[in-house]
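User: Here's a chain of 168 residues. Predict its fold as tokens.
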Amino acid sequence: MSNTVMPYLATVKGCPINSIIGIVQFFKQKKYDVDTINEMIVQAIGIDVSGVKMPLSQRTYLFLYIIQTGWHSDKKGLNLSDQQVLDQATTANNALFAQSYIQSAISIEMDERRKSMSKGELAYEIYCDNVAELSRNDLLSLLEKELETSRPGATTYYYQAKKKAEGV
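Assistant: Prediction complete.
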């Protein structure tokens, strides 16, 4: 059974499906949040990865690796399943993020992107990126620092982000 990446790409308005470079450039120029990336992965391969804890930057690159792996599979006639596409993309993504200089470059890219976000959007992203690793108190301190707000302000942003992440 072949993967579903190419049929997904054919449904994305304005996406150039004849060039992997064009496809990556098309997706990289847009701004995404965690929920949007998760939904795009489900649409591309039918597998929900929302339960996997990873920062937005890493999740974004996982999506790009999924697209790249599925596209190459189709062009080379490899007939990979959606799970095989996800497995190969996850392996490549993990290898990429294991390199410290890549983490630094992506951190700089994310910092630039975050400058254009509202405090609420940024709080949600920080929450999703760190909720699995940090205690509530540590996450509040991070929000306070990153959002340049008071402790009560950070607490409000924390609960709004938590509600959004839980779908409430």
